[in-house]
C-alpha cells in the first residue's frame, strides 16, 4: 500500500501545471456543484435553442470518406449491427444481452456491473458506430431499425440528467463519453436525417447541442493526452453541426496546441502507443477534412496530420497490423491500412500500395527497425514514458519484436483490460516483455491502473546498417540497483541480442515471448529452442550464447481487450552479473 501511495505521489508530481489545475478544477466542481441549490441540468437545457438547422453536409461527406476507408471491415460492422438490433451489446469482447435491441438501456444493473471502460463506450452510444459505418443512404435503414435507435435516445433523455445523486463529471457525464455521444449522433443525423421524423430529428439535435455545451465547459485539461484530442474533435464536429463558431474555435485551438505539444519530431504521438497514435491521427484527419470543407482550414493541423500519417508508414510492420505496444490492441482503432486510406482520401500521399521503406526508424519516438529482408526486428529503445502522461506506458526497455516472412514470431503482450488488478499489472510489467528483468521488482514504480513513477534516462546509439545499443541505470529506493546494456546486431546467420548486466546479489532473466500461432521446443542441452508453425515446419531458432541456459514456459497474450491466449515464453537465466546472449535465426 505504501508503494501505491509513493507511486501516486510521484505520478502527481510529474503532472504539468495545466493538468494539476484541471484536476483541481474537476475535483472542486464534482464536490461543490451537486450540493448547490440549483438545477444544473436545467441550466444546460436553457442554453439549447428550441430549433436550429444543423449543417450536416460536411459531416455527411466526411462520414462517407470513413466508410470507404473501412470497406475491408464492412462484414464485421454489418454483423455488429445485426447483433445490436437483436439486443446484444458488445464492447471489449464482453456482451450484455437484452430481449431485443429496443429494450437496450444504458443503466440497467448488468450494464452498471461492467468495467468503466465498457460503460464509457455504452454511454457514448458506440453501438451506433457500426450503423453509420455501413450505410450512407437513408433508404438503407428500415423504419423498424429507426424506431429501435429512437428508443435508445428516448431512454437516455428521460433518465440521465446532469449532476444527479451527488455526481458531476462522473458516471454518465464523464467528458470522454460525452465526446462519443456528440460524434455518433451527429454522424447518424448527417446520414439519415431525411428518413427521420421531425420529433426524432429535434431530439437528436437538442441532445448533441446539450452535450456540446457541457463539453465546452469541461474540457479534460486535467487528463491531457489523447483525451484532449477527443475533446477537440467533438467540439469541431459540434461547432460545424450546430453552426457555433465558439466551439469551432475552441476545438481548433486544442488541436493546434496538441500539434505543438503532443508529438515528437518524427510525427509520433508522445504516449508512444501505436493504437492511440492511430486514434489521434484519425481525429486530426477528421478535423482537417471538416475545417477545410467550410474554408476554415489550418496549415498547422494539416502538417501535424501529415507527419502523423508518415509516422504510421514508417512504423508499419510487414503484416500491416500495429505492434501491440503500450496498451495497444487490435480492433479498437481504425486498422493501419484504413487510416492510410483515409489520409489519401483527404489529399495526403502515402505508401499504402508499396513496400515500406526498410530504413524507417523513428529515433525521437524510440522505435527502430533492423533488417531489410524477410527477417525484421523492431526495437523499442526509449524512455519508458513521458513523465506527465504515464497512463498507457508499459515497462519494456530495449524490447524486441520479430517478423519472419511477414509473420509475427516474437511479440509484445497487448493488454487485457484497464481495470486495476493483477492482470493489468502483469501486462504493463517488465515480465511481459521481450527484455531483461533484474531481481523480482520493476525498474520503475507501477500501481493502480495508470500510475507510473520513475525514469531510466537511457542512452541510445544507432545508425542505419549498424548495431543498436541501449544502456541505462536503475538506482532507486525499493528497486534492485543495476545497469543494463542491450546490443542488437545483424550477424551472418541471424540476429544477435547481447545483454550486459551489472548487478549485486540479484539474478537476471531475458525473456522472448512467442506468438501463439507457433510452438516452441527446447533441446536436451537447454541451449536451443526451435519455433515451429502450426504445420510443424521450423521457422526460427534461438541459441543461447556462452553457456547461458534456457527454460521454456507459458505466458498470456492479449491481442484484444478481454481476450487471452496462451503462448510459449523462452527465458535465459543468470544468477549474477555478466552477459545474457542469444542468436535468433530464420530457418528456411
From TrEMBL:
Protein name: Alginate lyase family protein
Heparinase II/III-like C-terminal domain: residues covered: 357-570
A Pfam family assignment: Hepar_II_III_N
Record key words, sorted: Lyase, Periplasm, Signal
Keyword Lyase attached: yes
Molecular function as annotated in GO: lyase activity
Species assigned in the record: Halorubrum ejinorense
Compartmental location: Periplasm
Domain Heparin-sulfate lyase N-terminal: 153-332
InterPro entries with a match to the protein in the record: Chondroitin_lyas, Hepar_II_III_C, Hepar_II_III_N
